[in-house]
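REVIEWER CHECKLIST
Item 1: Sequence provided? yes
Item 2: Single chain? yes
Item 3: Sequence as submitted:
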Amino acid sequence: MASTLPRTITRSDPTRIAIEWDDGIETVYTARELRVLCPCARCVDEITGIRTLDPASIASDMTQSDVRLVGNYAISVRFADGHDTGIFTFPMLREHDPKAG
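Item 4: Structure as written out by the authors:
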């Protein structure tokens, strides 16, 4: 079973965030990948669970300006388009590893 506990979270530049998990695996997200994945109520219908955010509306050169821990279970990200309401839980981030495709 894949670990959902981060060992380190690194914001090395405004275009990417890297998470090294407790099992030694590293997941790297671009800011655009995270913005498209946002689980907030503005991006996903709360009743149906259907994604309402059109991925085509997110710039390919999206950046983020801030990453914060939310308790011991998630991160929040402030994106260049002003969006900052998503809470990205560690299990969700591990499940949506871009390399796992």
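Item 5: Key structural point noted by reviewer: Residues 6-95 form a domain with the NE0471 N-terminal domain-like fold (CATH 3.30.2020.30).
Item 6: Recommendation: ____
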